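[Automated response] Your request has been received and processed.

Submitted sequence:
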Amino acid sequence: MRRTLVAEEGRLDAVIARMTGEARADVQRAITSGKVQVDGEPRPKAFRLRGGERVTLEIERDEPIAAEGPSVPIRYEDDHLLVIVKPAGLVTHPSAGRRGGTLVNRLLGMGVPLAPAGGPLRPGIVHRLDVGTSGLLVVAKTDESYEALRSMFGVHAVERGYLALVRGAVANDAFAVDAPLGRRAAKIVVDATEGRQAETGFEVRERLDGATLLEAVPRTGRTHQIRVHLAAIGHPILGDRAYGGGGNDARRVGLERPFLHAWRLSFIHPVGGDPVEVVEDLPEELVEALARFR
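Generated structure:
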């Protein structure tokens, strides 16, 4: 249905969502597809409205997220939450432009109740793993556990350990990278002037010929944090073509994805108060790549 409204002041997508009650994801999809105009002209979702403009729009509501297979392994589960293993190549949750082929679709296919507080596209999702990263991820079943887990991640009360195979020999057995991160187009970069504070601790697990196996423990939770921090110190993750880790050494050991795996997850249960500690070994393709370096 086509509608016209007189705009309030603010960002285009936020104003439309507020004035119409439509989901912001639906509004953004309509803007991207050219179904929203401001005074007869298409504008981007971040366009700043002064107030008083005539906004015409035609919004199609999202269809429910479909349940899909196959299932993913569960390593811990109770009535409040579960810890699963996300395979590499799987997007964590749907978006305005992608409705299927995600972890959320698979969890729904498994019949897992997901906390509605996450929203229609991210039910139950309290943190994410990059599409190329495998490993452990905690998911909320109830709104109570969702809010509690979100708060815990916000104050860094959830400890996460990642295994990363990087190019070259790092100088120290234990070190930290404290470098603010910002976005430049589609990539994350170190940005000392306008970036957000980001810190990652690293410890050598094994030294190899031409590579080093590290455990990475992020002390903040920025997008692509571990990948960008390692690239910034000249030791990109092997297989990570976006941040300098592609090349002959990665191809030689058969890496078609970044060698980054969320292997350890520990936190205090947000409802029961007991410690939850889960570990997950490297998947087979990373075990084989590592063996080729030994």
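Summary generated for your ticket: The helical segments are 12-20, 24-32, 103-109, 143-154, 225-232, 248-252, 284-293. The longest strand covers residues 199-208.
If you did not submit this request, please reply to this message.
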